[in-house]
Amino acid sequence: MIRFSPLLSLLFMLLLSGPLLADAPRVVVTITPLHSLVAGVMAGVAEPELLFSAGQSPHTLVLRPSDARSLEQADLLFWAGPALETALSRVLVTMARGAQVVALMEAAGVELLPVRSGGGWESHHHAADAAGHHHHHPAPTASGQEYDPHIWLSPKNARAMVVAIGEALGALDSANAARYTANAEALLARIDALDQQLAVRTAALREYPFVVFHDAYQYLEHHYRLNAVGSVTLNPEQSPGARRLHQLRQRIADLEVVCIFSEPQFEPRLVRVLVAGSAVRSAELDPLGSAVTPGPDAWFAVMEGLVTTLAECLDPPSAPSVQHTNSKDVFSLSMTTEKHHNLFGSVGYKGKVRNVGLEGRDG
């Protein structure tokens, strides 16, 4: 009777169980929502590395030695692009010299929305930059247009990114290309299913005006036609003065704002000050998934979490019935002029409303 060593027996069993996966590329992804989509496409092949840990803003760069090694050893790097991970763009040339770098803002099919400017947003943006304070710096196109980098908050964009991720992985790792394609198709179906559910849940929220801490949710608002009417600040690192806070409170009252949302990356004290003594509610939105476990389910948890928080704050079951004014009814728009400025300095173009930027000049 022939006896095999334990090692040979194990190898034989593996061969019978199916083909061995070829060595997968080393993949690094910057932020949790994008990492989630990449992890979903790579399921069963390998796990991508997450560069920015939970709670870390992609606008700043604090690299640990292990992060530097990950970049140096990467075969493929996925990021939104320099408009979001601004500080990272300065070190990629030296630290990730051997990696193929994929900016998902440039992926085919990704819908890019222009940075909202005019009135408060525009003046605050220039003032903050002049003072040396930086938030994100959307990359201008050849025409000079700047785009919002928070692209993952749109299911339509998530679909386009999944396709681009699968193509990039398949091109680099042809041995596992079939697995990437199958995973991408399954992921697209899952995104569509969640999108349908969220569309039903958000339909009842469209009439409620709300304010966000900074303008990071335009893609979510656009996709589900939500009624965000402004943001507290464009630069979360710079707090407005007492006079500015008074102006913000007045505008929030004038717009009949139902809820103001803070974010876990930034101090919520300012939001507490704004809602104190008023009927305006507050809650925390987490666009980066700071409290979410990284992995294939994280993007879905982020999207569900955002909609759940919006619903609980804007239309809680115990809340009294209140007549809310839609932002489209707040302003009197001239349909005959090319553009005009409304009461708060926001610009309307041929009947389309630009959301009010609550952050204006201090003083």
Quick take:
The protein has 363 residues and is of the alpha/beta class. The chain has a domain at 120-124 and 130-134 and 144-150 and 208-349: 3-Layer(aba) Sandwich (Rossmann fold), CATH 3.40.50. The protein contains twelve helices and ten strands.
3D structure, described in words:
With 363 residues, the protein is of the alpha/beta class. The chain has a domain at 120-124 and 130-134 and 144-150 and 208-349: Rossmann fold. Helices cover 38% and strands 9% of the residues. It has twelve helices and ten strands. Helix 7 packs parallel to helix 11. The chain is globular and about 60 Å long. The termini are far apart. 41% of the residues are buried.
Which helices and strands, and how do they pair?
Blueprint: H1 6-17, E1 27-29, H2 32-41, E2 49-50, H3 65-73, E3 76-79, H4 92-95, E4 100-103, H5 120-130, H6 155-172, H7 177-203, E5 210-212, H8 218-224, E6 228-231, H9 242-254, E7 259-262, H10 269-275, E8 281-284, H11 298-314, H12 327-330, E9 339-341, E10 347-349
Helix pairs in contact: 2-11, 6-7, 7-11
